Amino acid sequence: MLGIYIHNLKDSSSKTDTKGANPFSNWTFKDAQGNVVTYPTYDWVNDDGYNKMGNWIEAAAKKAGR
Questions:
Q1: Which of 10, 53, 62, 1 is nearest to 29 (CA)?
Q2: Which of 5, 32, 44, 60 has its C-alpha lying 20 to 30 A from 18's C-alpha?
Q3: What is the pTM of this model?
């Protein structure tokens, strides 16, 4: 699992929004052994999502054991 912030993308009126809170901060995730697991969040614009999304997905899949 991963999160992607899209606040820097322009809408149909060419406006952008402010960055919201971490979407995962409201929950605690644990693995099968009860250890707390954190998931990364990326910024689509600042972290070059257009070119790097595949890498983000691959890293999440490896972390999940796939």
A1: 1
A2: 60
A3: 0.82
